[in-house]
Amino acid sequence: MFYEPLGGGRFAATPATAGPWSPDLQHGGPVSGLMGRAFERHEPVPGTRVARVTIEILSPVPVATLDVTVRVVRPGRRVAYLEGEISHEGRPVVRAGAWRIMGAPSHLEPVVHAPAPPPRPEVTPPFEQWQDLHVHGYLAAMEWRPVRGSFGEPGPGAAWARSRIPLVAGESDTPLVRALTLADSASGVGSQLDFGKWLIINTDLTVALHRDPVGEWLCMDASLDASPGGSALCGASLADSSGEFGRVLQTLLVDERPLA
User: Fold this and answer.
1) In 109, 112, 119, 244, which residue has its Cα 20 to 30 A from 210's Cα atom?
2) CA-CA distances (angstroms) from residue 195 to 129, 145, 227, 256?
3) Do residues 223 and 233 lie in contact, with contact meaning Cβ atoms separated by under 8 Å?
4) Distance between CA atoms of 260 and 95, rounded to whole angstroms?
């Protein structure tokens, strides 16, 4: 599991949450999933669903004990807005917002513009070639099936993925949690920048879903734009075997990696 529940909104992060830059700092995927889980469980209203989540990463999140809180800012039967926070030792490290929206009528005719996702390959690539990155945390906890241009190859890229472990011990991941746990990997799947040369860190993550995903395997198709004197922007689509169900957007800091 990524987290061990301690009760009272407190969770102990396991080594599986560690991101590629350090074994002591968490990847944004599990953090986002934990926040989404809290939004879904807070004063739920029958017939509604979390349709959009925005994560603001205030500082690196340590692989340690975290406290999660949520409150309803704008209550409503059809539309509600929630705010959440993750803190470590009393210091906020993540703030987030979510729109909870009533589900559309069942007789609504679907409107889908995106093509069907590419087939899922049968081989998971090794990560050993990434000598400068920590690959034994989140990257190893997810099962990856790259389709094109990802994991060492220039993007844009696409990959199928699923979690090998649950977000929280003793629980089954919900569709929202599965989507959020994967979504923060967009800049890794779609980047055209060399991770060995460039430090690429997102300051935020927005995930908007027009429907809930179905099944464990999800496909992400991502691309990244970057400009000298500016920053980077990564966008991605999310799909399952039935087609696209949502979008991802990240704003990223780009800087030269410090010499070892």
Assistant:
1) 119
2) 12, 19, 16, 10
3) no
4) 32
Q: Rounded to 10 degrees, what is the CA torsion of 20, 219, 95, 223?
A: 70
Distances, alpha carbon 50 to alpha carbons 17, 35, 79, 178, 180, in Å: 23, 12, 10, 13, 11
The C-alpha angle with vertex 63 and arms to 249 and 182, in degrees rounded to 5, equals 30
Please give the angle made by the CA atoms of 153, 155 and 161, to the nearest 5 degrees: 80
Q: What are the domain boundaries of the chain? A: 3-103+118-256
CB of 257 within 8 A of CB of 197? Answer: yes
CATH architecture of 3-103+118-256: Beta Barrel (2.40)
50-90 tens-digit pLDDT: 999 999 999 999 999 999 999 999 999 999 999 999 999 99
What are the structure tokens assigned to 93, written together? 């490290």
Rg over alpha carbons for the chain, rounded to the nearest Å, is 18
Q: Which amino acid is at 4?
A: E
